[in-house]
């Protein structure tokens, strides 16, 4: 049996009401196990409860009910061991401006009780590409460098599980690639990775398995490939000689003009055939210069699962 890096059962969190508002039930009974050695994606719309879940794992938010096991340690019974098993790279970039990267890593290692002889400060600095900035004040570091330092800080105690909360939100392509190559390397060395991201394409490329959280509940959890296979949606893309008025197509078929001018028609293979769509295009007098097809991506899965649940 695969060892579970994380085992969560019946996890609930209710925040006390703020400014006259009633209590907020952010997690409504989450059951989730994350296999050791995997790269696991945690997705969901804003306010779904992802940060609450991560903060509970990190020991920063107290749960209202349920059980959390990290690397086999129950958070309530073995709080120290479960905390030592996990490292979290947070979203926010605020850090003490007077620390140098080396200083920040040393302090963090101290907080986790890593003895001096076991610290890997230079190795971590090299991995995150900050060796040449090791002794520069944090306030002189760029946003990208600070983010890399946050990754480094999450690694000082060599955790079994690394959690990345929106690690690539707003970062440039170069940094994104560096982060992902680091994450892949760490995963190859056996580290379990949990990440939240708004970039579905990224989750599709990086994650072995994905859970989608919505309104404090896990609404789906599956292997990434299986999740994509669940939808029988298909898109046909037409390059036409001249634009057409809206086609007469069944209601569930979505048509739009892409920014490159191509007509995109998305339909469900179990309901509509490609032939019907081609007929509608030619009935409208369309002259097709080129046609290609696209399979559904995670965004389609996501939209179809969370559609209609938001105000
Ligand atoms: N400290 C708090 N007090 C009261 N309500 C809170 C608190 N923190 C979060 N919430 C509420 O709990 C719900 C879940 O929030 P959470 O931040 O976990 O969602 P999220 O999925 O991480 O969203 P995002 O992607 O925007 O970070 C939201 O409705 C949020 O307003």
Automatic annotation (TrEMBL):
PROSITE patterns: ABC_TRANSPORTER_1, ABC_TRANSPORTER_2
Domain ABC transporter per the UniProt entry, residue ranges: 6-240
Organism: Roseinatronobacter monicus
Annotated keywords: ATP-binding, Nucleotide-binding, Transport
Gene3D superfamilies: P-loop containing nucleotide triphosphate hydrolases
Entry's Gene Ontology molecular function annotations: ATP binding; ATP hydrolysis activity
Protein name per Swiss-Prot or TrEMBL: ABC-2 type transport system ATP-binding protein
Pfam families: ABC_tran
Xref: InterPro entries: AAA+_ATPase, ABC_transporter-like_ATP-bd, ABC_transporter-like_CS, ABC_transporter_ATP-binding, P-loop_NTPase
